[in-house]
Amino acid sequence: MTDYLHLGAAALPALAALLARPGTTRVAVLADTNTARLCYPALQPHLPAGHRLIEIPAGEEYKTLATCELVWNELTEHGFDRHSVLVCLGGGVVTDLGGFCAALYKRGLRCVLVPTTLLAQVDAAVGGKTGVDYHGLKNHLGVFQLPEAVCIDTRFLSTLDPRELRAGYAEVVKHWLIADAEAFQTGRREGMFVEDWMPTVAASVAVKQRIVQEDPTERGPRKLLNFGHTVGHALESYLLLQGRSILHGEAVAAGLVCEAWLSVQKGLLAPEALDQIETFLFSVFEKVQFIGLETDAIAELARQDKKNQGDTINCTLLRGIGQGVYDQPVTVAELAASLRYYHRLPA
């Protein structure tokens, strides 16, 4: 299962070799307006002549079925068949949406992901989850479908502004908190900005891959990867529906604090560990702004969380730093209380 991953300087040559295999009929590159400008020129030398560029608008608000229709129309009008390849060049929106489009087009178009953001490299592009948002609900429609390859080159991270890079770091911290206590302690001492991202990316990918291999379709341990996301997705969905700016990783960082606090309330996590988590996260991330009166409305959106079973909201919590525990039932009232706790913390 891991042989579909290519990391480092060999990643793009591996892509070129894959696209040159006999039997490949056509190649399209799916990029958003940012990656078409900033990343496509570096990818172009590794692509075959005659490939097609499909450009979509950048931003979470375009991660919709309407954008999928644009992609499917392009593929259909230009005669792409199931032996063609869709190369998805971008962050989590592009890799999630592109993978979803490929999985449904003619019941399965060959697909390769080239993630260009930290968030996509350590999380979104790894593990075979695809999806789009629906009526403001995060990844409400999607399928599990492994791509033919994921080619991760950290040189693309130089195209990111600090806010985007920071947002991806939330998923790195999440991996530490659920599975690698030693890396968390090292990371909070050394801080976020490093000269070479490859060791951090490779270690984070290894954590996710280890969990995904055990549980490819999220029936059990893969739910660990949703730590911070029950609150995070609800917060992100709410603010985006209100037309307010937030990145996925920023919402997840807030969710990590809220769900660590819930872990203390459930008697799973020591208060001292919560203090370490809070102190570190607020040293990296600005506080997400919302008003106290909005907490109930935000928490209500968790009723749509994909981990739920019937009327039970299932959350991933911490039994300690580096030790996640999944399928922990929580109520809407408890989620609202965690948001009130976060709201009252000093900025």
UniProtKB/TrEMBL annotation:
Compartments reported by the entry: Cytoplasm
Swiss-Prot/TrEMBL catalytic activity: 7-phospho-2-dehydro-3-deoxy-D-arabino-heptonate = 3-dehydroquinate + phosphate
Family assignment from sequence similarity: Belongs to the sugar phosphate cyclases superfamily. Dehydroquinate synthase family.
Presence of the UniProt keyword Nucleotide-binding in the record: yes
InterPro entries: Dehydroquinate_synthase, DHQ_synth_AroB, DHQ_synth_fam, DHQS/DOIS_N, DHQS_C
Keyword NAD in annotation: yes
Cofactor: NAD(+); Co(2+)
Coarse class of the protein's main subcellular location: cytoplasm
Domain 3-dehydroquinate synthase C-terminal: 168-308
Transmembrane segments: none
Enzyme Commission (EC) number: 4.2.3.4
Any one Gene Ontology molecular-function term assigned to this protein's record: metal ion binding
Single GO cellular component term: cytoplasm
One of the GO BP terms on file: chorismate biosynthetic process
UniProt-recorded name of the protein: 3-dehydroquinate synthase
Domain 3-dehydroquinate synthase N-terminal: 54-166
Keyword terms: Amino-acid biosynthesis, Aromatic amino acid biosynthesis, Cobalt, Cytoplasm, Lyase, Metal-binding, NAD, Nucleotide-binding, Zinc
Function field: Catalyzes the conversion of 3-deoxy-D-arabino-heptulosonate 7-phosphate (DAHP) to dehydroquinate (DHQ).
Pathway info: Metabolic intermediate biosynthesis; chorismate biosynthesis; chorismate from D-erythrose 4-phosphate and phosphoenolpyruvate: step 2/7
